[in-house]
């Protein structure tokens, strides 16, 4: 099945930062997802892999459009896939591109990530496979989220 290629069920313990093999798998899935990027306009492929609290991985790529503004980033593709299959609790995301520098998510993606909590990790990778890891709180400080709507 088409979907099975990008969705796996690894033996990831249900808490904390992924390490060792589970982390390598998450990074690998982000690189694999990049291969599916539909980016004829920017020619800037991006892949993302999202690890749920339950240990499943949902991956996504950027999907551009001839009506440029309708393009969607890899990070949001992965989140929408996970949400639409019933997963709302996330532990980590890995992002891959062909850049010689660490890929960093755009502001829109940071806000969409933040919707699902501020205490999870984002692995920003370089094309050579090295990475840095940032908490969502670091990527989007002083953020506005669902809790704020209850403060009125
Ligand atoms: N893009 C992503 O998918 N994720 C990022 O983190 C940065 C940018 C996409 C959007 C667009 O399709 C292309 O990369 C160039 O901006």
Order of helices and strands: EHEEHEHEEH
Strand content: 15-25%
Rg to the nearest angstrom?
15 Å
Low-confidence stretches: 1-13
Bound molecules: tetrahydrodeoxyuridine
Tally of DSSP helical segments: 4
How many strand segments?
6
Main sheet record = 6 strands, mixed
User: How far is it from the N-terminal to the C-terminal residue, by CA?
Assistant: 47 Å
Give the helix proportion (percent range): 10-25%
* Overall 3D form: globular
- The structure class reads alpha+beta
Give the integer mean of the pLDDT values: 92
If strands are numbered along the chain, what order do they take across the biggest sheet?
1-3-2-4-5-6
Give a short synopsis of this structure.
This protein has helices at residues 20-34, 74-83, 107-114, 136-139, and strands at 7-8, 46-52, 57-61, 90-97, 121-125, 131-135. By secondary structure, the chain is an alpha+beta fold. A hairpin with a 4-residue loop joins strand 2 (46-52) and strand 3.
Secondary structure layout plus pairing:
Elements: E1 7-8, H1 20-34, E2 46-52, E3 57-61, H2 74-83, E4 90-97, H3 107-114, E5 121-125, E6 131-135, H4 136-139
Parallel strand pairs: 4-5
Antiparallel strand pairs: 1-3, 2-3, 2-4, 5-6
Bound molecules: tetrahydrodeoxyuridine (THU).
Residues 39, 42, 44, 46, 62, 64, 71, 73-75, 95, 103, 105-106 line the site of tetrahydrodeoxyuridine.
Report on this model:
- It is a single chain.
- By secondary structure, the chain is α+β, with helices and mostly antiparallel strands.
- It is built from 4 helices and 6 strands; from the N terminus they run βαββαβαββα.
- Strands 1-3-2-4-5-6 form a 6-stranded mixed β-sheet.
- A hairpin with a 4-residue loop joins strand 2 (46-52) and strand 3 (57-61).
- The termini are far apart.
- Residues 1-13 have low confidence and may be disordered.
- The protein binds tetrahydrodeoxyuridine.
- Residues 39, 42, 44, 46, 62, 64, 71, 73-75, 95, 103, 105-106 line the site of tetrahydrodeoxyuridine.
């Amino acid at each position: 099945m088409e979907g099975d290629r990008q969705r796996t069920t690894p033996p990831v313990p249900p808490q904390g930062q992924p390490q060792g093999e589970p982390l390598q798998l998450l990074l690998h899935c982000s690189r694999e997802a990049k291969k599916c990027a539909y980016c004829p306009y920017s020619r800037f492929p991006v892949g993302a892999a999202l690890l749920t609290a339950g240990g499943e991985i949902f991956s996504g790529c950027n999907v551009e459009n001839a009506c440029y503004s309708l393009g969607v980033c890899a990070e949001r593709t992965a989140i929408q896939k996970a949400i639409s299959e019933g997963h709302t609790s996330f532990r980590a995301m890995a992002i891959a591109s062909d850049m010689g520098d660490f890929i960093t998510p755009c502001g829109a993606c940071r806000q969409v990530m933040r919707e699902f909590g501020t205490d999870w990790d984002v692995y920003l990778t370089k094309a050579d496979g090295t990475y840095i890891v940032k908490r969502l709180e670091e990527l989007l400080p002083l953020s506005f989220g669902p809790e704020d709507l209850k403060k009125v």
